[in-house]
Structure of Molybdate ABC transporter, ATPase subunit:
Amino acid sequence: MFQGNLQLKLGNFALDSGEFAFESSGVTVLFGRSGSGKSTLLRAMSGLDKQSHGELRFNDEVWQSGKKALPVEQRDIGFVFQTAALLPNKNVQGNLDFAIKRIPKHRQHGPSTQEIIERVGISHLLNRPVDNLSGGERQRVAIARALLTRPRLLMMDEPLSALDWRAKSELLLLIESVIADYQIPTLYITHAPIEVERLANRVVFMADGKITSIESLGDATSRIDSPLFTEEGPVSVLHGQLGDIDPDGLIAFQSRQQPGSDSAFTFWLNRTEHSNPHASGAQARLRVLARDVAIALHRPEGISMLNQIPATISQIEAEPPTQRQVVFLALADGQTLLAELSRRSVQRLGLAIGQTVFALVKTAALLDR
Ligand SMILES: Nc1ncnc2c1ncn2[C@@H]1O[C@H](COP(=O)(O)OP(=O)(O)OP(=O)(O)O)[C@@H](O)[C@H]1O
């Protein structure tokens, strides 16, 4: 658990977080416009900035009380920033050794150095001078260096923003799996909603140096004014698990099964060249744009669309300024799927809260694998 209330003044900018409390497990994303104070909050939480004051507790430890702060070295944090500050006159191994030498005794446990190097995919880079590494390779080294310090907590400040799309997508997969495998609580700053959808357990929204709200990812994508929505409009992120790839080349994405009961719904997805044939049983997230969801009052016949998911309307809201209607659909396992329709369609179908309908999903993309 993180709990506190932090202040930090940098030039003309004042961070004044307000009281906050959130679970530390999993990934907490700090999200807000440029200049809203995300990096400043992260610095204040890390102890990197001696000017911070206020209160901060991490689980049962006091990290900040008034001006008194636990030194950053005693907080056991692994840092990854936008660009990896590597020592230029050393090769990759030299950079890692530099970090390893500084690990305090009480942190010399957990995965071995060799395991981390392999896990992060840099075994072949160890003898390379750091100056000729690509941006993605540099970030891998930075991630390995952070993990080698056996952190209790990771702080990542826009670790992907300086990379091209291919490196971004590879690194996102790596970060996601490393955090899950090593179970390290992570504070993660990004501007990119897709990274939030993919990684976040919860989102801390910031504006003008303050925390404006702290929401689970599900809640953050279940309000039509969500700052996570871009010009694509509202998006739902559904959690589920993958089934086998069937002979027609379709992959099943199923709701999380409760012991002893059948899956509440199944989406059929097209297999792509990136689909992992061995992912059956893996947890996954599915991204569905509200504008790709249509509604039928009865299960349609003679229609090519495979994904016809029974659901109950829980809410209908007008999306300003377009007056498009966002229909909130409660799926059988309690998750929410959003559908964006014209006002005319909503009136023509006579849609109302509590009504049982079928969500027809044109396309949906797996976020995880
Ligand atoms: N050392 C500093 N001295 C003076 N002002 C600073 C300093 N560091 C940051 N600021 C200012 O504080 C404000 C908040 O910066 P911060 O980096 O925390 O925002 P951010 O939300 O992380 O933004 P971005 O997404 O662009 O990185 C900005 O206006 C910035 O110019």
Q: What stands out?
A: The first helix runs from residue 38 to 46. The mean pLDDT is 91. Residues 192 and 228 are 8 Å apart (CA to CA).
